[in-house]
Amino acid sequence: MRLNICNGTQKFMLNKIEFLLHLADNALIIGHRSSEWCAHGPVLEQDIAISNIALDYIGQARNFYQYAALRLNELPPESSVFNLPATEDTLAYLRDANDFKNHLITELPNGDWAFTTLRIFFFSSYQYFLYQQLIQHEDAQIAAIAEKSLKEVTYHLRWSSDWVIRLGDGTTESYQRMNTAINALWPYTQELFQENNFLQPAKNILAQIQIDWNEKIKNVFEEAGLPLPEKSIQHKGGTQGFHTEHLPIILTEMQLLQRAYPNCEW
Amino acid sequence: MSTHSNSKIEWPLWEIFVRSKQGLDHKHVGSLHAADAAMAIENARDVYTRRMEGISIWAVESKNIHASNPDEAGSLYDPANDKAYRHPTFYDLPNEVEYM
Predict the structure, then answer these.
(1) What is the pLDDT of residues A89-121, one digit of tens each?
(2) At the N or C end, where does chain B have fewer CB atoms within 10 A?
(3) Which CATH number does A8-260 carry?
């Protein structure tokens, strides 16, 4: 989706819409990844736990998409090349991979249970501190969604921290797996704090979120007996639409029905 | 059957009690597996309270529950059968007491 910018007010609104889409895309993609565990969890209880978490994410995505659609539909049609009217479904199912603004960490394949729980730990730590800031957002709707979601994220963070500690402080094999997951995921962590156009208003809060995030990771890793990784190469570009090869594969599966049978309902 | 018996050690079983409202009792809702008490409560939250069923959870490891023997049911419970006078049904209630 390319948005043509007309004037100052509209530019402000387009930035906000891009920001909303970014929040929604993050939640949708990590929600879809989490949902892939449904019926494949290591034990029944954890299968239900991660399926619940997946549903929380999809719920957050819906809230942000609905609000983005509302704002998009208020724009003059000529300022947008996107098919209007937009709905939560058109935004989720009819955009291409390079329109998606999610962080790369959300789209990586699940790997094993260590990778899955560590990814949710890294991401929900980030969401936890981000939503705490968004509660004070000048846009009341964004603040309300953040407040509702924060309770869910607080639980995701607790659940995933527990797993990082259990596996890190568990057996030789579980420690090894968690260590492998850290090395695989660390190069995707710093993108979370990278500034870009639509995050411009959030510029100051990103620095604070990064400080809080580092502290949280340090504490949990310490309890888990896991080493903090050295500086490593960092992958970036997700928020600009430059994704890994994994995102188109997710979208192909997720969007198949709407692409094959446009406007179908059941 | 399994040659990987080490990796198949089952987590202990826990009995889960959920209180649905402030002021009500915890009620037994079922059981689940968990590695320890903290995980039992989190699992119970995910398994038994996902439709707003509760506001408080107790988890008790199943091995700590002691049960009466079903074979002794006759001597334990049947004698209460013909003791109707133990029910508080032999009182005249004043009309002012509406709900008893």
Answers:
(1) 999 999 999 999 999 999 999 999 999 999 999
(2) N
(3) 1.20.1260.10
